[in-house]
Amino acid sequence: MWALSNIAAGPPYMLDSVLNDHTLDEICKIAEDCGWQDVKAEALFTVTNMVTNATESQFRQMLMSKEILSLLVGVIRKGVS
Predict the structure, then answer these.
(1) Taking a C-beta distance cutoff of 8 angstroms, is the pair 20, 58 a contact?
(2) Mean pLDDT of 21-42
(3) How far is residue 10's CA from residue 27's CA, in Å, rounded to a whole number?
């Protein structure tokens, strides 16, 4: 997860590789369901890096994922613990 977080923090072409591989849905599932808090936190950092470093078109692509919307709504409702 740490490596994916670093890729997501990189330039847009690196983020494209994560988006085109449909890895975002899996990262979101890990962030929601993982029992290990450190892995869950790293998954959330990865999503945060993706959102903050995305181009406008990449951000739109991310919003098409129902997993990221579910994750964001869950985080807003529960807060990050």
Answers:
(1) no
(2) 88
(3) 17
Distance CA 47, CA 8 (A): 8
Per CATH, domain 2-78 is 1.25.10.10: yes
Q: How far apart are the first and last CA of the chain?
A: 19
Q: Is the pLDDT at 2 greater than 80, yes or no?
A: yes
DSSP 4-33: HHHHHTS-HHHHHHHHHTTHHHHHHHHHHH
**Where along the chain do its domains lie?**
2-78
At 45-74, the pLDDT tens digits run: 999 999 899 999 999 988 888 788 888 787
